[in-house]
Design goal:
The chain has 298 residues and is mainly α. It has 13 helices and no strands. The chain is globular.
């Protein structure tokens, strides 16, 4: 309904319904709703779901409340690859981001060769710092493409189309389906090291599968819309307080709650002269996370 062109809710539902007249669907109103606003809304919701669900999964796998795609270096790897792709050409952004995320995961696994949870987190922090420096270097040599790189890194859904929707929908399936299947294993593994081994769970195999699918899913969202922080960190913390630690419910609710949160953040960004959604989530997420830390400490 909202935007530069405000439309009544009945017109919105009419243009989205299968009963809309063919001539009406050629009007500027219909094009704005169906070709501009609808893919943007779907993209924001799916991206928020991807980031939140991946945060829940990673925190459970590693028994660490600070684990998320950014602290593990996965998102930075995707950002580094996508930045190279922007310099190379628009068709290279998605594959470059995917290879960057998987490359970051490979580096993390290589550094933490023993596979212990503590080493994985530390390796992720190191990898994140290294790849963030790489992104800074890309910006330094970007030349006339600097604006495109910087704007993309801020995280924005402006210009989203249905190709982006299909891409992030694929990422959502990559994260959501394995997460739901292996949720009971995550419940056990989140209790501590070797708890799963006692019950016959191949912890290394489960961890590798979920790390791979989470990396691929996050890479698809980052390659489309850039860096959007704090969603994968804040939503898991809030939901664990509200609904407990059962990961099947947590993954489902985090996907819905994270998608809704990012959808509203993008709505605010859109009405505030197209401020990137990543700026909104950072400005609101950082104070909330600080409050949660202080509350838990007390």
């Amino acid at each position: 309904m909202l935007g530069e062109w405000v439309m009544p809710v009945r017109r919105v539902f009419y243009f989205l319904s299968p009963f809309a007249n063919e001539n009406d669907l050629k009007s500027p109103e219909a094009l704005i709703i169906r070709q501009i606003r609808l893919p943007r809304i779907l993209s924001a919701f799916l991206t928020g779901g991807i980031l939140s669900a991946s945060g829940i999964i990673l925190q459970g796998l590693l028994s660490n409340p600070m684990a998320e795609p950014y602290t593990l270096g996965i998102a930075s790897g995707a950002a580094f690859g996508a930045s190279i792709g922007i310099l190379s050409g628009v068709y290279f952004v998605v594959p470059s981001a995917l290879f960057g995320a998987l490359g970051a995961l490979f580096i993390v696994k290589l550094i933490s060769s023993s596979g212990s949870r503590e080493k994985i987190i530390l390796a992720g922090i190191i990898t994140n710092a290294f790849l963030s420096s790489g992104v800074t270097f890309i910006k330094a040599i970007a030349g006339e493409k600097l604006y495109a790189v910087v704007l993309w890194l801020m995280g924005s859904f402006a210009g989203a189309d249905f190709n982006d929707v299909y891409r992030v929908l694929t990422g959502a399936f990559l994260i959501f389906i394995p997460g739901i299947i292996y949720a009971p294993y995550i419940d056990v593994m989140s209790l501590g090291d070797e708890r799963g081994l006692i019950l016959g769970i191949n912890e290394s195999r489960v961890r590798n599968i979920l790390l791979f699918t989470a990396s691929a899913g996050v890479a698809l969202s980052v390659s489309s819309f850039g860096i959007i922080g704090f969603v994968g960190l804040i939503v898991p913390h809030v939901l664990r307080i509200i609904i407990g630690a059962r990961h099947r419910q947590l993954i489902l609710m985090s996907f819905l709650f994270g998608g809704t949160l990012l959808l509203f953040s993008d709505g605010i960004a859109q009405t505030a002269r197209e401020i990137p959604a990543g700026v909104i989530t950072a400005l609101t997420g950082a104070p909330i996370f600080c409050w949660l830390l202080v509350k838990n400490r007390s």
